[in-house]
Request: fold
Amino acid sequence: MEYFIAKTFAGLENELFKELHGLGAQNCRKLSRAVSFEGDISMMYRANYFCRTALRVLWRRKAFKFRNNNEFYKNVFDYDASEVLSPDGSLAFHTTASDSIFSTPLYASVLAKDAVCDRFRDAFDRRPDVDRESPDVQFHIHIYKDEAQLFLDSSGESLHRRGYKVRNHPAPINEVTAAALIKMTGWKADCDVIDPMCGGATLLIEAAMSALNIPAGFYRREFGFYRWKNFDRKLWSEIRNEAEIADDVSVNFYGSDIDARYLETARANVRQARLQDFVVLEREKFQHSSPERTPSLVIFNPPYGERLSVDDSASLYREIGDTLKNRYPGCRAFLISSDIDALKHVGLKPSKKWNVMNGSLECQFVGFELFSGDRKSFVIKQKGGK
Ligand SMILES: C[S@@+](CC[C@H](N)C(=O)[O-])C[C@H]1O[C@@H](n2cnc3c(N)ncnc32)[C@H](O)[C@@H]1O
Reply:
């Protein structure tokens, strides 16, 4: 059994835990912005390919205690990196350290790099080069006090880079956040999904991929382990063949946006994901929209000032509340925003509320049950009364 850590954003650990457990990972444990798990190499491939809520998967190669620079160097030197790296290859180190003897994590990275390279020079008379941009092997070191863990980054580029974004929106939601939010709503591909402020269509693409069982890594060209010496192509192809992608799904995905430029962005991304038969896009102001079918899941991230300028966020969010209440009765609506004050202007009572990160932005994700008439009658009706 090997030990791994899958990283995610703060607030999404629960969803990542459930996903890893569902994929067959053993001894899953929630950490801060990560979940640790155990399994064999096929589990590492599986997590990279199928996990929608992981940013990267790290494989632990060594855990040790050290009291000084020499002991740190010696412990890293003892690890035989030639299992993954050749002397002609390239490497990079990324270190996080807290409460340790190192005044900066960079110093620990340099020491570890020297240890790995010195071992190569002793054995082969040659040593790998450092390449910070695109190394063959990316190491991560986590140091807490006198404890260090040496990991290999099996993902390479962050897993939120799914490979379907060919056009960029100025304020996109992160793909990993989008996938987690959809899971958090409890949606089980049992009703249509509407994103009435869809921008680059991230939420719709993630929802459609999930409904059709398209693996999160399906469109990616590369994973970190592709460049490792011990990359097992046959096993990797077996893992990819585990995907049971559906041809069709009985629900639709509707996206609209007020801005024609962003609809072009959405169209390009949807086409790249080969989802144009499932995702319907049109230009429309949210205030004039209504659902094709009821119930539907409405999920969106309205503009929130940080990246898109909003003239008057209080009135925009008030109009969002009014539109949901008047035009979407019978639906469930979920909003994510970092503008916590503006969210209060929606004027509806949230039935659910979470704190989550969208990339580096702290956000609130809120859910509303939409009904016609007053709340009291709705609650009585839900309880089976008259
Ligand atoms: C934060 S962005 C959404 C980003 C999107 N989730 C993505 O991943 O690319 C908000 C979007 O809302 C759109 N928008 C703003 N006001 C709108 C309105 N009244 N009706 C429809 N769309 C609107 C903007 O044009 C913008 O594309």
In short: The chain is about 30% helix and 25% strand. The chain has a mean pLDDT of 95. Residues 169, 171-173, 196-200, 202-203, 257-259, 262, 285-287, 301-303, 308 surround S-adenosylmethionine (CB under 6 Å). The longest strand covers residues 56-65.
